[in-house]
Amino acid sequence: MMHRLALAAALALCLGTGSALAQHAGHGAPAAGASSSEAASTRAYREAMARMHKAMDIPYTGDADRDFAAGMIPHHQGAIDMARIELEHGTDPAMRKMAEEVITAQEQEIARLRAFLASRR
Question: Which candidate among 27, 58, 67, 121 keeps its CA 20 to 30 Å from the CA of 52?
């Protein structure tokens, strides 16, 4: 299941137009009127999203395979960061289990993507 979700995210990244940052515009953006009194988990999610969006704004090379791998690494890292926030703040057993599964799956995907990039040097 997690592999299918990662594949769907990858396809969305590849099929869209514009930069990865533009494709994710609005994800995690501060809501109108957001205040310093928001929940700690909300602040953590906003910070994680901001880091992910910045990291996904990669310099494109024109090599679709390389660009895909380079863009997906920070995308997957964002999922890991969100899952860790769930483990820190969440209480629902099913969501916590899913967060653990996300971390495991996304770490494996990142390793595969890094190995691909290393092989293309």
Answer: 121
